[in-house]
Task: structure prediction
Amino acid sequence: MLLSEKKGLIFGVANGHSIAWAIAQEAAKQGATLGFTYLNEALERRVRPLAESVNSPLIARCDACSDEELDEVFKMVDEQWGGQLDFVVHSIAFAQREDLQGKFLDTSRDGFKTALEVSAYSLVAVAQRAASRMTQGGSLITLTYHGSQQVVPNYNVMGVAKAALEASVRYLANDLGDQNVRVNAVSAGPVKTLSAKGIRGFGDMLKNSADVAPLKRNVEIAEVANTGVFLLSDYSSGITGEVLYVDAGLNTKACV
Ligand code: NAD
Result:
């Protein structure tokens, strides 16, 4: 099994459709021991049974914008796992609904700050706490989307946040490489999840992507998960600072 004897934290499960949950299920199948966080009480009701279904005793509330709540999660890693941490899945993003439609030009200062703090800085905040516990080396992955590189209608401020996230992956990978801690991003094609529903026109995006992609279909969430687990495992030991596309080839096509 790819992740036997490894312990990892999963940030970003909202429900059974979350990409983080698909990665967690595959990681559990590959022998990992997992810890989960949830954003608030409303989501706890969904996350707790999922975590318990993969025998995870470490479940903690964590708003990634709260240093106190982040510290609390890593305190639980110290107490329950003796400080051993091998990997982290960061699968967190948020932008105000009004900033995921219309023109990017209209993004407010507050909307910009929120999107960048939740969707990009949170990776840095997590890495700061995770790296010191990865004494045997480790792997951090995050989730991104091609709207960081090219203009995608309505993706707007989230595209800017994903560009910051991808640059953060490269800088973190450089800072942590001498500890053998790797940092990578999976750039997923469109997948129907709670967050995706917040993007105006997401249904059209799904249909158009399937028409245009070289594989003539959308990517399956399990394919994103498999790549995530590969990046968490020692099979990817030579890969860091990378953005790996799992999008049925969509990003390789020019819009002509
Ligand atoms: P999702 O809604 O299931 O997951 C998003 C998660 O972010 C939720 O669990 C939510 O609780 C969490 N979150 C939001 N604000 C938070 C905060 N302040 N603190 C802690 N957690 C917070 O949707 P998803 O599609 O699984 O999204 C996961 C990641 O995948 C996101 O980064 C998203 O941008 C990325 N992604 C999604 C797609 C897609 O088409 N669904 C494509 C490419 C990349």
User: Anything to note?
Assistant: Helices lie at 19-29, 41-53, 67-81, 109-131, 156-176, 194-197, 202-212, 221-232.
